[in-house]
Amino acid sequence: MFEIDPKTISTKDLHQYLLASVAPRPIAFVSTVDKDGNKNLAPFSFFNAFSSNPPILVFSSNRRVENNTTKDTLRNVIDTKECVINVVSHRIVRQMTLASIEYDSSISEFEKAGLTPIPSKLVKPFRVAESPVQMECKVEDIIALGKEGGAGHLIICNVVWMHIDPLVLDDENRIDVHKIDLMGRMGRAFYTRASGSSISKINQPFKQMGVGFDTLPLSIKANPYLRGNQIAEIAALEEVPGEEFVNNYLVKDEQYMRIKGDGNFETLSAYAGLLIGEGKIREAYAILKDI
Hints:
The chain contains eleven helices and twelve strands. It is an alpha+beta fold. A seven-stranded antiparallel beta sheet has the order 3-2-6-9-10-5-4. A three-stranded antiparallel beta sheet has the order 1-11-12. Strands 7-8 form a two-stranded antiparallel sheet.
């Protein structure tokens, strides 16, 4: 393993290793105003949701590594205790990067990025009209994590109003993960698009007690031709199929009978893997148990 002692590496390099490892990260496109009402807009990927009741979002505005200065966003939320957190969809990601440039505080990033400021309902900062979800926030607290370059400031935001574009909702008024088409931040200059084939649905009912890896036979949990994710699908079963199911299924599966005739352990395992991919977990268990 390549190992790093954070105390012996430059902050700049450590920053890149951290960001490339903790990824993808959601992006907070934060709108603020200063004491005079001048608009500011900047993206932050040190960001996430931390509570639903109360509804709390937290993002971090870090001190610049090169000169230990702070950003306009931090100064504005200290002064006004308000912000709007807009989410970043694929259709505005390039415009968002324009807003990340360090313009003079008198210059509006809305104008530079070609984005439309629209009034909020309960706070003074403007919303980004092109963002599919805009969350008006009151800043509850700001926690400084250090005094040197690279140190973060946790900005704890209480969501007081949400605006959601109806075009990203499904028939039940829930946000459709494909329609919202969110972007995530990776390391260096890389981003990821959270839609299409990059999205997977994993069903694991919270109250369902899976049998776990430890109860599976060695032919399954130690199978060198199965990936951990495939074995986990079997381990997530509430109970494994009994002997009656196994025996009845095996004699009916013609493809299994043909493969078994060749006696090829790898081929049987691969076939079971295909069944797992099709959601036929109990059937895959039957084959693997018989190997």
